[in-house]
Amino acid sequence: MTLRLSEEQTARLREAAARDGLSMQAAALKAVEDYINRRTATRDALLAQILTEDAEVLKRLADS
What we know:
Elements: H1 7-20, H2 24-53, H3 55-63
């Protein structure tokens, strides 16, 4: 995969990576990992909410 950034995005990534003592690649990989982890946590929370709030409906569906 090739990641193409605008000049402004590249500059901002370079600055952020430098502040964190990371290479630009390491900073980009960390951002991707953080994004994936947030999405997974959000999905898990929503699923738990559905299972809790709709437990009775899901039970009836399973029994039918």
